[in-house]
Amino acid sequence: MYDDLVKRLRADADYMDNNGIMLFAAAPFYRECADAIEELQQTAKHYKGCSDDWYREACDYKAMLPRWIPVTERLPEDGSDVLAYLKYEVGGRIAAANYDKGMWQDCVMGGLYRTEEGVVTHWMPIPQPPKEENK
User: Fold this and answer.
1) Which of 30, 49, 102, 121 has CA atoms 20 to 30 A from the CA of 8?
2) Parent domain of 93
3) Cα(82)–Cα(122) distance, integer angstroms
């Protein structure tokens, strides 16, 4: 669309110049418009490329962030300490839990929960602790 507009502006400017038409100095104005459109197209292409890179980087970063994983999607490896979301009839809570051989054990309260009972609905890896600064 814009390429056609640029061609038309340049063709009209050339026609005016070649035929001695001095219509309010329209030919130079048409050329300036065509130049501006081409410059805007180049700028848009540049920023589209940048935004594509930024979008890919944001997606890569998001993929690295911990997320709640439904137990229907997959379970943690046996012996893993994770955060687990325990769903009750009224509300739910997050617990530090150990998963081993189909059993979830609450690391703080000591309770046991079976996955097939539907109590644990989601889990996520425990994030790394903060690194201590060397002083």
Assistant:
1) 49
2) 69-125
3) 10
Q: State pLDDT tens for residues 81-126.
A: 999 888 877 778 888 889 988 888 877 776 766 555 568 889 999 8
In 3-state terms the chain splits into helix, strand, coil percentages (rounded to 5) of 45, 25, 35
Domain-located, residue 130: no
* DSSP structural state of residue 115: G
Q: What is the pLDDT of residues 4-50, one digit of tens each?
A: 878 888 888 887 778 777 666 677 777 888 888 888 888 777 777 67
Strands of 112-114's sheet in order across: 69-70, 120-125, 80-87, 92-100, 103-106, 112-114
Write the DSSP symbol of residue 100. E
Contact by Cβ (8 Å): 87, 44: no
CA distance 114 to 98: 12
